[in-house]
Fold this sequence. Notes:
The protein is mainly alpha-helical. The chain has a single domain (8-211), classed as DhaL domain (Serine Threonine Protein Phosphatase 5, Tetratricopeptide repeat, Alpha Horseshoe), CATH 1.25.40.340. It has 9 helices and no strands. It has helices at residues 8-24, 26-36, 41-54, 64-78, 83-97, 106-124, 134-150, 155-172, 196-211. Helix 5 (83-97) runs antiparallel to helix 6 (106-124), helix 7 (134-150) runs antiparallel to helix 8 (155-172) and helix 8 (155-172) packs antiparallel against helix 9 (196-211). The N and C termini lie close together (7 Å).
Amino acid sequence: MANKNITLTEVEKAVRVIIDTAFENEDYFSELDGLAGDGDFGNSLATGFKVIDDQWTDLPRSSINAFLMKVAMLTTSHVGGSSGPIWGTAFMRAAIYSKDKENLNLTDIVNIFDSAIEGIMKRGGAKAGDKTLLDALIPTKNALEKVKTDAPDCWKRALKAAEEAATRSIEDTKGLQAKRGRQCFTGERSIGTVDPGIVAVATVMQNMNKAFA
């Protein structure tokens, strides 16, 4: 994907990476969730994304907007717990931003992250520092934005920076107390644990970097 814009083909591939990451890490994400949550995060993601996987060949491919909008609807409807609305909001914001766009550049991706982060904040009431997936998405967006400023056509550099930022967020947030999500009910017991949503975002970005290297 170096030095080119993202077309529908690359968007499909990116969504495929997210789905496959959920499948491959179902038990691991649930195990992490069980340390300070109810232990169903991995299962919720995998079960919901299985519906998208089953309908993969029938998803609309007339535009990036149409494809992502359907993915957003299926995610919201079939991913269980609070994860469905949160991840569905991210896809929905990406779809709305992509309307009338045949391809996306790095500036567009940064704007999509901004819009998704804003939507998730409004939907779930979380903010930076609450120990949710936002604490991985925000550093990832910031890393992409820095590359956009320094080298706007260098996708390889952007993906590497995004992966590194998302991965760092796992350790950077470990000492926080969860303020939102299921883990917040455990209070101080959440301190010292990793948030499964943060780990999921980091794992997705690691796999994105591998897929598009």
